[in-house]
């Protein structure tokens, strides 16, 4: 098993954070994991993305040309990463910000109003955590309980006060993923 | 060992001998000031008993030969980088005495970034900066310290300040930095000046031994070959012309309260340019 | 299956050393996620690095930041220099004084360090220099690249010298190689380059939090003040050509020893390979995935991964390529390592190159396509 996930959107949407949580969850489940951020000027306000690979064996390419999952949180990310999703892969689309439909018939589409759900959960900056919940709800690449533990680890002592909000956001996304919400 | 140990009834009194740290006669050109500065350095280190705990950081230019004549643990630096090399040595061996020995091409041109930042950090080593206003090793080209109008092989009509700027007063510039605990300019122009130069060098090492911060002694020196003068003419020029452009004296001796009358930066509530 | 080969003395014992600082209290987890830059830094701290000098540059800045926190914690030397020039020269000084020194930067900063690297090679001063490569030439991009291969392996600075170059392809391997780099640097009194790239620096992977320590001896050449002995001079200047040639011959003798003893490489699925991929670092990981995909498609592909780029494992590669129909070098460059591959293969098998530049990384499918082209062209050449 080797599953690759790309999470992409604006800087400030918590993309690298959500990727780290997913990677940590993979680690907690005893898998091999790899997390790669976009870095440099991008993380200072432009677009941001990260790649997470979870596998049962040594991970090869850090460059993903056939993503098992792509989570796109803004229109430019949709344009860039929808074509990268492998056939039968999953595209999670943040319908709060993205109106377009992907030009793909061979992939699974999960449309979730991530930003709106994040706002309801308490903070629209949690949009990536909501999207991560939707991804896990639909594809269960890691167990949701593991993500709860991973959230606590990645938040650390410094941001421990955020755990309630983050957990709520993840759960909201998870429910949406389970329910196969079509916006 | 001190000079008095050489006194015996039979031999009479030793009034002149080569310092033990000056391991052999220097081979610099006749009338070159490096030999005098080497000797002063050797005498000072010997008098302070530092010979076996000193590390010399060499440089590039005629000064590169310093480690051939001074019996000290020594490391060579790339051109201009002595202050960075000395930073590495002193940070790892803070209990040792560390000095750089640099000429003006090395320190004041290619090595300005290194010397300024080492001084700004207040690195606790001593800089012996020998300024003869010219690149001697490469055949007498213009240096940043070359005087206005001075002829060199790369300023054949004399240094034109319109196109090459004015001589760089490095020691005065460094004196503005709070990390600099001691900064002085001396000269080898006559025996009295040489004696004062030795006192400055000694004071610089005392500051280092006290662990206070950066210390630098600029020694105005001669380059008869590069200047196109005889050794004695060079000494005259040094006294009459060079020392007019570059006044000798102690600019900073913070432990003794000598410092430029400028507010010292360091306080977040005061402008660093206050007083200008 | 990966077989790692090492022509070297047995590795020293593994000793547990402190994990990443600031970790949660309680027993150590088996593995923790660490960023490559931070793992390299902590590996150096654990290995007993006495002094670190650096200057901020993307994509290696986290290495500097980690050292800014950890080195003072350990009572060791950290200086953020005013430039890469100053950083490497501080390293020169500390190394001369007997310190175990690490310096890091990325491509443009590494170019600035070429001068002092030449001096250190000439003066026989050990240092470990980490290059987290980015796209070039010039200011280039901050994306991961391998355009500094020739710079690293063919000299870097001026004069006749070489330095061992170690190329990790995972963060766990980088941790091991940091320590090995110190061993080589001190064993042969030479600078050593750890050649990583932006992906290795920026990625996070699981690592065992117990890093290995490295004992240190006091060599008989360091500067500590000439107490009770004759003064020592560490220099590269030998003005008489006869004397310099003698010195250069001595250096070359050291390089011969390194070349004979320190070649390392990893072989993956080479036994029956009709096409042999040659790749290091991040490109080797892409190649590994490409090998899997090719094999799924019925192409018998294998991967030869040099771990030492200098000395390049030339004879082992030539042996590994025996019986293959094509050799394909995969790089994040216009084709630099491929020159060494051609020298190693000596025309025995057709050699091809597939590369991306500027911070772009080859994709596994792109490599598979290049493999097919190479096999077809190799066929053509064989007729």
CATH class of chain B: Alpha Beta
| Sheet having the most strands of chain C | 7 strands, mixed
What's the structural domain tally of chain B?
Answer: 1
User: How big is the Rg of chain C?
Assistant: 21 Å
Overall mean pLDDT of chain B: 91
Q: Based on DSSP secondary structure assignment, what is the total number of beta strands of chain C? A: 16
The share of residues in helices of chain C is 40-55%
CATH topology of the largest domain in chain C: Rossmann fold
Q: How far apart are the first and last residues' alpha carbons of chain C, in Å?
A: 33 Å
Percentage beta strand of chain C: 15-25%
Strand order of the largest sheet of chain B: 2-1-3-4-8-7-9
The helix-strand sequence of chain B is HEHEHEHHEEEHHEHEHHE
Shape of chain B: globular
Number of domains of chain C: 2
What does the radius of gyration of chain B come to?
19 Å
Explain this structure to me?
- The complex is a heterotrimer of chains A (183), B (276) and C (383).
- Chain A has 183 residues and is an alpha/beta fold.
- Chain A has helices spanning 15-28, 75-81, 114-121, 127-139, 144-155, 163-178; strands at residues 2-10, 32-37, 47-55, 67-72, 85-94, 108-112.
- Chain A is 38% helix and 25% strand.
- Chain A has a six-stranded mixed β-sheet with strand order 2-3-1-4-5-6, sandwiched between helices.
- Chain A starts with a strand and ends in a 5-residue tail after the last helix.
- In chain B, helix 2 (66-69) links the parallel strand 1 (54-57) and strand 2.
- In chain B, helix 1 (34-47) crosses helix 8 and helix 4 crosses helix 5.
- Chain B has a single domain (23-256), classed as Thiamin diphosphate (ThDP)-binding fold, Pyr/PP domains (Rossmann fold).
- Chain B starts with 33 loop residues before the first helix and ends in a 23-residue tail after the last strand.
- Chain B has a seven-stranded mixed β-sheet with strand order 2-1-3-4-8-7-9, sandwiched between helices. In chain B, strands 5-6 form a two-stranded antiparallel ribbon.
- Helices cover 34% and strands 16% of the residues of chain B.
- Chain C has 383 residues and is of the alpha/beta class.
- Chain C has two domains: 2-8 and 28-227 and 236-261, Thiamin diphosphate (ThDP)-binding fold, Pyr/PP domains (Rossmann fold), CATH 3.40.50.970; 265-382, Rossmann fold, CATH 3.40.50.920.
- Chain C contains 13 helices and 16 strands.
- In chain C, the strands form three sheets. Chain C has a seven-stranded mixed β-sheet with strand order 4-3-5-6-8-7-14, sandwiched between helices.
- In chain C, strand 12, helix 10 (281-296) and strand 13 form a beta-alpha-beta unit.
- The relative contact order of chain C is 0.13.
- The model of chain C is unreliable at 7-26 (pLDDT under 50).
- Classes of the chains: A alpha/beta (183), B alpha/beta (276), C alpha/beta (383).
- Chains in contact: A-C, B-C.
- Chain A binds chain C through residues 20, 23-24, 27, 32-37, 39-41, 58-63, 65-66, 153, and chain C through 2, 24, 31-33, 58-59, 142, 170, 198-199, 202-206, 282, 285-286, 288-290, 292, 361-366.
- Strand 2 of chain B pairs parallel with strand 10 (233-234) of chain C.
